[in-house]
């Protein structure tokens, strides 16, 4: 037999296998996004603790969890670590949602982030989230059930870098690794620990007012989020965000780095200009008033 006699069947078989693999992946994605039954969240316990529930994703998540019949402990602002231990003492806490998060008001270079904002970002995005896990995990371990949901960010996961939001993205990378690792430590003790990765959601943080297919409303996001609780260490629960992750993965890192940097540098310039105009106006008012 000649070599050519094998070429066509081999190429056909390779083609068939790769089409089959992609089809299985696609069907699995459809199942995960739209068809898989959500877990019965009441089985984890009768209470859920949600941080950063005054607005945005946290508020919508609180409503969604309440609609599933869970009792809620909501914490926001400085409450988080100070009073949470007292608040949850004796409660059958089944779910913790570490949602509170802080970013810069607008993109800025690393050296332009003032120390106070840096400290707040560390505190809210990493410290509070870690202490919250520390508060609820022992109780969950005693019952051998519980779910912890940490809200991460696409900035640390689906793109190779997130310049001009460096600290924010870095703290979210911490949260993703924390979730992955403690999930491995405690999965066998019945605790489901997960980091969810939103891309864009129309909230105060992003200053995006209109939602669309790719920019989820907090309500749409929270519905998808709650459906995914308990499934996997890292996930993107909303289907259009997952599609964006797929597209980002297909693009070269250099292109993404360049695109994100250029965009945020432009936004930074506009925001700085607005800030200096505002300052000048305020100074003018003070001078006028003192005359
Ligand atoms: N929106 C998006 O596109 C997007 C994308 C990726 C990830 N995320 C993540 O999703 C989570 C929710 O964000 P969001 O968009 O819903 O933002 P948001 O509308 O600004 O809400 C943020 C929440 O965090 C709380 N928070 C802010 N600073 C705090 C502080 N110093 N101490 C305690 N709590 C504080 C706020 O409570 P107070 O008002 O009481 O301070 C508020 O309830 C964050 O972790 C964020 O990083 C959002």
From TrEMBL:
Q: Where in the cell is it found?
A: Endoplasmic reticulum
InterPro entries for this protein: NAD(P)-bd_dom_sf, Sc_DH/Rdtase_CS, SDR_fam, VLCFA-Steroid_DH
Alphabetically sorted, this entry's keywords are: Membrane, Oxidoreductase, Transmembrane, Transmembrane helix
One GO cellular component term: endoplasmic reticulum
Pfam families (alphabetical): adh_short
Membrane-crossing segments per the record: 6-27
Q: Which GO terms describe its molecular function?
A: ketoreductase activity
As for family, the record states: Belongs to the short-chain dehydrogenases/reductases (SDR) family.
**Which PANTHER family would you find in this protein's record?**
ENOYL-(ACYL CARRIER) REDUCTASE (PTHR43899:SF25), RH59310P (PTHR43899)
- What protein am I looking at? Uncharacterized protein
Q: Which organism is it from?
A: Cannabis sativa
């Amino acid at each position: 037999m000649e070599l050519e006699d094998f070429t066509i069947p081999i190429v056909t078989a390779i083609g068939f296998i790769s089409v089959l693999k992609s089809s299985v992946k696609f069907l699995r994605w459809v199942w995960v996004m739209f068809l898989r039954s959500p877990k019965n969240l009441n089985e984890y316990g009768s209470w859920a603790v949600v941080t950063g529930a005054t607005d945005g994703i946290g508020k919508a998540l609180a409503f969604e969890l309440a609609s599933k019949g869970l009792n809620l402990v909501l914490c926001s602002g400085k409450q988080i670590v100070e009073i949470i231990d007292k608040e949850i003492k004796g409660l059958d806490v089944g779910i913790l949602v570490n949602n509170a998060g802080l970013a810069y008001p607008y993109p800025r270079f690393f050296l332009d982030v003032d120390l106070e904002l840096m400290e707040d970002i560390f505190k809210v995005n990493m410290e509070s989230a870690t202490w919250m896990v520390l508060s609820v995990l022992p109780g969950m371990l005693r019952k051998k059930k519980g779910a912890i949901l940490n809200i991460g960010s696409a900035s640390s996961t689906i793109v190779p870098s997130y310049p001009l939001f460096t600290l924010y993205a870095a703290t979210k990378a911490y949260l993703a690794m924390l979730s992955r690792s403690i999930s491995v430590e405690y999965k066998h003790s019945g605790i489901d620990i997960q980091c969810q990765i939103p891309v864009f959601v129309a909230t105060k943080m992003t200053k995006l007012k209109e939602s669309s297919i790719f920019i989820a409303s907090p309500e749409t996001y929270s519905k998808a989020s709650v459906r995914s609780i308990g499934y996997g260490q890292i996930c993107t629960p909303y289907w259009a965000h997952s599609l964006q992750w797929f597209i980002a993965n297909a693009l070269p890192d250099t292109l993404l780095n360049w695109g994100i940097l250029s965009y945020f540098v432009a936004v930074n310039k506009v925001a700085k200009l607005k800030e200096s105009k505002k300052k000048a106006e305020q100074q003018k008012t003070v001078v006028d008033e003192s005359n």
